[in-house]
Amino acid sequence: MVSFDKNEFRSALSEFATGVTVITTLDDEGNPHTMTANSFTSVCLDPPIVLVCIAHGTHTFGYLEERQRFGVNFLCEAQEEVGAYFAKKPQDRTGGVDYSFSESENGVPVLDGSAIFMDCDVIGSHVYGDHTVYMGEVKEIRRNEYDNPLMFYRSRWYHPHRS
């Protein structure tokens, strides 16, 4: 039996500093669809496999199930506003946030200005509770110059180099 509640679990997880990614895929009309996520990790080097966790109640889940392909965009510190914008539900995204997309060799949306982009094909998935864990084989990597990564810690943006 678990001796803690959901809020205590969430609070404990917030103590783990993470990088911030934006997951990209295509919607039903073929337009870019995005979601900010920190549930990303590498799985193995050979073959190059990464993992993302997507909640079942999101649009991203449906589009990823349909497309079986996604992009992972590592955000740099200058993209904090973009990270916050894509963390909202699509219907709640308002305001003048500046961003643009290009396209990978496989047609996956690339968030321009990201530190790193990885184009991934889904090679496996596992349902756990209200999320699906997707394993993606990396097919393409793009790199950009950047100063610092965007980080998240204690449920807010984290800037370790700032005093």
From TrEMBL:
Keywords: Monooxygenase, Oxidoreductase. InterPro entries: Flavin_Rdtase-like_dom (IPR002563), NADH-dep_flavin_reductase (IPR050268), Split_barrel_FMN-bd (IPR012349). This is Flavin-dependent monooxygenase, reductase subunit HsaB. One of its GO terms (molecular function) is monooxygenase activity. Gene3D superfamilies: Electron Transport, Fmn-binding Protein, Chain A. The keyword Transcription regulation does not apply. The lineage of its organism: Eukaryota, Metazoa, Porifera, Demospongiae, Heteroscleromorpha. Residues 13-159 form the Flavin reductase like domain.
